[in-house]
Each structure stands twice: as C-alpha cells, then as structure tokens.
Amino acid sequence: MNDLILILAVVLPTVTFGLWWVLRPREEAQQIALVDTPAILVRDGVIEHANGGALEQLPIAIGLHNWEDLHDILSPRYPDFPRAPLPTTTGETVVRGESGEIRISWQDSGASIVFHNTSSATVMTHDLEELALLRQVTDTLPFPAWKSNMTGTVDWHNEAYAKLKSRMSADGRKAHDPIFEMKEMKDGADSARVKIVLEGSDKHEWFDVTCKLVDQGKMYHATSLTTLIHAEEAQRDFVQTLAKTFAHLSIGLAIFNRNRQLALFNPALTDLTGLSASFLSPRPTIDSFFDAMRENRRMPEPKNYKTWRQRMADLISAAETGRFEETWTLETGQTYRVTGRPHPDGAIAFLIEDISAEVSLTRNFRAELELGQSLVDTFEDALAVFSQTGVLTFSNKAYDVLWGFENNTSFADVTITDAVRLWKEKTSPNPMWQDLQDAVMKLESREEWDMPVCIKGQTPMQCRVVPIASGATVVRFSRDSNVHTPPKEVLGKAQD
Prior knowledge:
Layout: H1 2-34, E1 39-43, E2 46-50, H2 52-57, H3 67-74, E3 91-97, E4 100-107, E5 110-116, H4 125-140, E6 145-148, E7 154-157, H5 159-166, E8 191-197, E9 204-214, E10 217-224, H6 226-247, E11 252-256, E12 262-265, H7 267-273, H8 277-280, H9 286-295, H10 305-320, E13 324-329, E14 335-342, E15 348-354, H11 356-377, E16 382-386, E17 392-395, H12 397-403, H13 416-426, H14 433-441, E18 449-453, E19 461-467, E20 473-478, H15 488-495
Antiparallel strand pairs: 1-2, 1-5, 3-4, 4-5, 6-7, 6-10, 8-9, 9-10, 11-12, 11-15, 13-14, 14-15, 16-17, 16-20, 18-19, 19-20
C-alpha cells in the first residue's frame, strides 16, 4: 500500500507536467490563430506556426523557414528587426517600420511575433509585389545567376543557370557545387573570363563572370562571351591572313591610326625606306616616320626645314581626303610612287612603290621613239602611217611641210578621211583618192601600189601605198620616177 502511494506521488506530478508542456504550444498556436493581424510563432529558431494572415502576406512555410529568413524578409521594411532571437530573454520588444509596428513577445526558446496598427490587406503588400517582380526578373534573365554561401556551395540559382547545368557533364561534381570553376580573383578585380565545355562537344563556351559580396555569401552573374570570342578569333585569323599577304607584296605599306601612330607595316617597307624593324615596331608617329625617311635620303631633299614641315602637313591633309599621289626621284637614281589613302576610323595608309624599272623602261622607249622620229625626219620623202582603223599615228617633218600639217597642235585624232580631204584640196583632180582610202581600211589582200599625185603649182610626184605589220599602212609621197602598178581592182575603179 505504501509502495502504491509512493508510485502515485511520483508519477502523477510527472504526467501532469508533461500534459501541460504538450498542451502549451497548442494554446499559443490557438491564440496565434485567433489574432486578426498576421502573427507568427517561432520555436528554437524555426517557424512553428503562423496564422492565415501571415501565410497569405509573407513568403514563408511552417517548419521550412527560420528566424534568418524572417529577418531577410522583414528588415527592408523594419530595419530594427532583430537579426537573431534574443537569448534567455522574456518580455516584449516593439519594432516600428513603414507599415506599422511589430510586437515580439519573448518566451523560453522562442517568440511570438504579431503585427499591429496595419490590416492584413496592406501588410507587406508592397514587399510581396516587389518579391514577385524580382522572381520574374531572375527567372527570365538570359544569363546565369547564382549565389553561394561562405563555404562555396550554391544555395540559389536562376533558370538560365539550371539550363546551362543540364547541358554540362557532372564529372564528379556534387549537386550543389558551382558549374564554373572560379579561381581567386586578383585584388580589386570583380570579374573574370571563364571557359566551360559542354557535354558531348569539344567546343568551348566562354563567360564573363562577375562577383559581388552579399550577406553571408557571394552573388555571381555570368555573361556569355562565346560570340565575342569567335569574332575575335575570326578577326585575328583575318589579320594574320592579311599580314601573310602583305609580307609578299613588293609595295611598302604603312598604316597610321587616328592618333597618327604606325599601326601596321609590311617587310617591303623596311627595304624601300631603309628603316629598321626595331624603329618601326614601337609605332612611331607619322612625323617621326617621314623625318627618318628624310635622314635616310629616301625622299626628295627639301630646300629648308620650314617648307619641309609645311609640305608634310599638306601631305597628311591630302592623304586624309585621298588626293595624295607623288613621284619621288631620289639621289640614288631610284624613283618612288607614293600614294596616300584614307581608311576607316580616321586612319591613313601610305603605299610606297619602287617604279625605277618602269620609269627606266618608259624613258628608254621614249628615247627610242625620239630616235626613230629624228631618223625619219631626215628623209626627203613625206611619210604618213595610218593604223588598221585608219587613224594617223605617225608622220615625218617632210610630210608636215609638204601638206602644211601641224601634228603638235592637233588634239583630235586625224583619220584617213581627214587626210584624203586635205590631199584633194591641194592637188589636181584624181579619181584614185577613194581607192587609196579603201586600201588603208582594207583588212585582207593588201598589196603595195603607186598612184600619181600633182600638187597645184608644183611638179608631179608619186604616192606609194605600202602595207606593214599590224594592219597599218604607210603612205609615201616622193618625187621618184619609179612607179609600181596599182592592183587590177584599183585600175578598174579608176577607169570607171
């Protein structure tokens, strides 16, 4: 009997205390549920209960969110909201904000949070609208964005990040490990270029990743640079192709950028200007470039330095409009053709070409022509050469004197028709002039033949028609008595 009394004395208080402890939260939860305004019950740092107003107005879930989540949600509107529950505290804390105030009733290992002086329709409405908008923004971002905690584990990411992750191979990577292998950034740098490889492909994807420190972690944004990288590679390949092409050119090329510094040159430029690659590589200015050419005597020597500077200014100005082209004769006997052309973005290109051989050939050809002209001018017979199309291409001095022809003052082409008209005016009537004109224009069955010609008031002479190479014809007027018989078709026309 005594043992039973002793057992009851021990068990009954224990059961009573246990029932009270179990029923206590339910009472508090019931009290929270009866509050008109939003109310939340936090136990051991975790949201244990919340009434309908709080669940509708706040982005929280019972049992899933904690005090830190509440702080992140409420601190923008209630800056004084505690970052963590106050330890071993009882009583009440009032936190005031834009939408009213929050009363926090501290309890053992927890607290009840009740919103006052605001209706459920207005509490956190602005925050929720802004939160929904931010969620839409992050979900529709075309580039990956993610947040990592202090240990480097990804605890949030947007939809673009998830899509990119699905295209990549795991390669032993854990579920919450970042897909970008970020190295420690240099001091002061907040961005880095990162390369990744997609699954089943050997092509690389390039991203520019920016990092910002945030509360309890880092926020990352990755912008795709793949298109830019490919464009840079294509540009680099194109420049290399141009460089190889320029390397085989015999014309010197010098391109100056908008700041008038040498941006590009080819090996031929060093040979033509006498300037070394060590001088050209540091990108000299355009003035220094031409000064060095002047010192190397690779351009005409100016009379004085003042006119030289003015000439260089005029040269650059003409090149900017594409009107510069000169021929330089050097002391060495070489001849350069220098051309200036404008390029996009204010650049200027100079082309330097050695035309010494061309000039020499032209001079030799001109000398041969002058020699031939001087030679035929010594002939007493008058000579005129007509091309296959009937244009007068050559005549000697005797011809000009005989017919009063001024070849040097004539700008238009003189044809066989013009010549026959002149001959008819100064000679006695002769029915064979038309035959001579037809013989000059004839393409086949060309033969040499003569015809008599008598200039008014002078003694008769002979006109000899001689076919030569390339379809040309020589018409020769001489006082020689030897006469070649005209072709039969010519005689037949004359008799008619």
